[in-house]
Amino acid sequence: MAKRILLSVIVTIALLAALVPVVNAAPPLQAGQAYTVQKDDWMWKLADKYLGDKYAYPAIAIATNAKHAEDPSYAFIWNMDLIEVGDKLYIPSAEEAKTIMATKHTIQVETKDIAANNPFWAAVWDGAQKAAKRWLVDLVLNAPTSEADVDVQIAQVEDAITKGVEALVVAPTDASALNPTFDKAKAAGIPVLIIDSDTTWPDKLTFIGTDNKAGGKLAGKFICGEVPAGSEVAIITGHMTAQSIADRVNGAKEAFAACGAKVVAELNGQHTREGGQSVMEDIITANPNVKAVFCANDNMALGAVEALKAAGKLKDVIVVGFDANPDAAASILAGEMTASIAQSPSNMGAFGVVYGLAAIQGNKIPTRIDTGTTLVTKENAAQYK
Q: pLDDT tens digits for 2-24?
């Protein structure tokens, strides 16, 4: 009797278990749906639950941004790891997700120099490559082999337009020289996003990069706090036709004027170590009492350090650069360069890709996206090596 009762209970439990739905096993959607982000949601969890593949999460981000272009109540996602509780997402159907994952848009990121020549551009390329992989973008990276090669950059951008890229992300070598080329891109329906150095072209979608004038002013204020009032200072500029360089220099000059420092030299170091070393030699020959030099990039600052070391004057002259690249960070830690101004070059590349794709989808893009600046000294230089 007891055995029959036990068997009946087991059978009843088994039947009830079969009737209870599995809460977490959501079936693939037959059609897309809106979804409000809950606590502890992650993109990969949602993809696993609704699409049956946790690696299909880019489809949710891309589909949500496409919806945002039509309906701003949907979230705009610029970082797939930063969805917030209350965000409205669009979960595509499994079939929609399959199409999204198989579709790649072509974006060209055109910088001033190739990655191999400068750690700054290497970081921009790295950020763009990582974002392109995640956002399913077919990425083209290109650049002249010198920041002075304006004509080469123009030819490369025009070639990209001819080949039909869907968005252009450009760090222009000159503030105005590429304007006629950008006009051609506009006529072809290709959105143009500017990174690093701004342009005078009025139809750019956005400028993504550092507030270079604020960064130059930060460098100048630091120098003012390190040298006696009225000291002689110098500036190694780089090409002033590049808006980023002009802004850095003008920001530093404003700071020097405010503290009473006297700018005794302002020379172009051609963006290279060799150029920085050469003009620093000229500066200390003509101005033996100079107390500090601001360099508009770290390559020139490292060259200035070499000139000062050779002249036995490094301990007497403060050298401040701009970019906080790994070589500069190592120099600061070694007690040679005094400081540098850090940007976020990786973000310039990454944001260029993310917002370039958003533009292709028809989204309205903020007209300015600031990546910020940080003063780098011995106290924090290890973070930038």
A: 445 444 544 444 444 444 444 44
